[in-house]
Amino acid sequence: MPDRVKVAIIGPGNIGSDLMYKIFRSKHLELAMMCGIVESEGIKRAQSEGIPTTIEGVDGLIKDGDPDIKIVFDATSAAAHLKFNGPKLKENHKIAIDLTPAAIGPYCVPVVNLQELEEAPNINMVTCGGQATIPIVYAVSRVAGAEYAEIISCISSKSAGPGTRANMDEFTETTAKAIEVVGGADKGKAIIILNPAEPPLMMTDTIHVKVKDKTVPFETIKQSIEDMVKELQQYVPGYVLRVPPTMEDDKVTVIAQVEGQADFLPAYSGNLDIINSAAIAAAEKIAEKLLKEGSN
Fold this sequence. Notes:
2 domains; 10 helices; Rossmann fold; 5-stranded mixed beta sheet; alpha/beta; Dihydrodipicolinate Reductase, domain 2
């Protein structure tokens, strides 16, 4: 019985390259193809690791990829996933883990709702800011409700590649919607800031939540947040509370910092690290399920 599920990556840029090295560490995933649309450093990097490659994108994956590839990470753009990759992966019965803000499938924040999504053919990893902040919003809303939640995600300009910059509008829209759908807030708002500071600063996220039930003790809210952080650190070890929870009247404020694991990208690229780590956590859970079904 195999102990790994074969996976592929579409998009050999910074996110795709970092995903590749994270997959190499996985107990349940085997990288079977890296897909691009031109010869690139990412394609060459995968080839140097002995990974089959194609420069025909999703079409090359379907035509020349191992038919046993079950899960595909899409690290391209929202437009590419909407128009090409998502529909073609669905048509060919591949499970899509979408790292773009396209949001064809349901939002996935593993520490919050992964168990509900194991059967979904296409799951969306929201955004880096969403992965860093929605767990905190949910931690507040599950004990005291959340009338409104606002997040400000500050990332280093150097860690924002072409894909991130091209998807800025989708970032804010997708994150705000996921704050509501997954985080449990009645109304969500998201802001992203690209920080040009040198040396580059770590990803920092400020989360404000207006609670519904002001009778809930602050210690209960604080404990819920601290419990959530411990769970999140299981797959994002560099996630810490830079400023512990505070509460003024009905508003809870938390400031989190994310240091990347530096698998491929610099440690300050916590924004890319957290969405990739979340994607790997989701894929591993799905792979475990597929392997268990295959053994029955």
